[in-house]
């Protein structure tokens, strides 16, 4: 097939933002959705283990020889259209809690602009294009590494906005039935940083549609730090281009914009999700913070209403458990970022074992200090925490 390329001598360390990973059996680069479905369908029929790869930004991959064929999704077409009158908009209940905004249960939004993008397109390239055209909706998600196809799988979110709030439809290849179809957001089971597709072989995302605001208005600014930088009240909207510039500045300050010259960006992004505890567990957590750090720190501990309880800040807990920026030392192959303790970074020679050891140390330390369990955000290939 002209739109399928077999890459010689592949190494997953060259294809992941954490820069670790061994050699798969083969690497197939697919330039069209049809090539993706043909490759995955044929490999599934033959019983060959498959790793579907987008931008490689959310993977922890074992070293050595890997018994897997990598199908790299590289279709990157983009198209815009006006939404049909009365066409249903996002109907997904807000999965991220009160601090995330979003459409309420059963609500839909009519009108607007629909952008359709190939799953292999670089995510930030799409954000930049939509903002450059004067459309609002994706600006708070600027600078997030990875591909378009990964965003609904992970329900990507940042600075008070989640993909669930702007997602219109997803085209996927159902690996069980061999069906290539469009589905609405409700089929994805979207919740905080996850969906029915995460850690699952159920389907492969081929294209994604998002609903945008053509009037030059951002999504409501709900994240306090961003609102303060923009000089707006929480819940207000702003110019998407200004929001994008500000978000990129904030992310760069935390080492969260990819840079070949900055080892703090050699990571899988935020390594742990913000934990959600039951409301009746919150007093116990605060009590343990008080015992360790004092009543003032306990009163200042970030806590937000969320689906299923109260969302805490993983980064805050990690620092207060004694894991500072750059932990454990400047000579360690895997370290916490020197800019942001929520990122585990490769300082140039780290292996999956190095990253796993550091992740376990941080997870177990937070559990011991505060009784809160942290859960890793990345997908594991050939290894686990």
UniProtKB/TrEMBL annotation:
SUPFAM superfamilies xrefs: FAD-binding/transporter-associated domain-like, Uridine diphospho-N-Acetylenolpyruvylglucosamine reductase, MurB, C-terminal domain
Protein family membership: Belongs to the MurB family.
Gene Ontology terms: biological process: cell division; cell wall organization; peptidoglycan biosynthetic process; regulation of cell shape
GO cellular component: cytosol
GO terms of molecular function: FAD binding; UDP-N-acetylmuramate dehydrogenase activity
Gene3D superfamilies documented for this protein: 3.30.465.10, UDP-N-acetylenolpyruvoylglucosamine reductase, C-terminal domain (3.90.78.10), Uridine Diphospho-n-acetylenolpyruvylglucosamine Reductase, domain 2 (3.30.43.10)
PANTHER family, per database record: UDP-N-ACETYLENOLPYRUVOYLGLUCOSAMINE REDUCTASE
Organism: Dietzia psychralcaliphila
Ranges where the FAD-binding PCMH-type domain occurs: 20-215
Catalyzed chemical reaction(s): UDP-N-acetyl-alpha-D-muramate + NADP(+) = UDP-N-acetyl-3-O-(1-carboxyvinyl)-alpha-D-glucosamine + NADPH + H(+)
Protein name listed in UniProt: UDP-N-acetylenolpyruvoylglucosamine reductase
EC numbers for this chain: 1.3.1.98
Active-site residue list: 193, 270, 377
Pfam families for the chain: FAD_binding_4, MurB_C
Coiled coil (residue ranges): none
First-level EC class: oxidoreductase
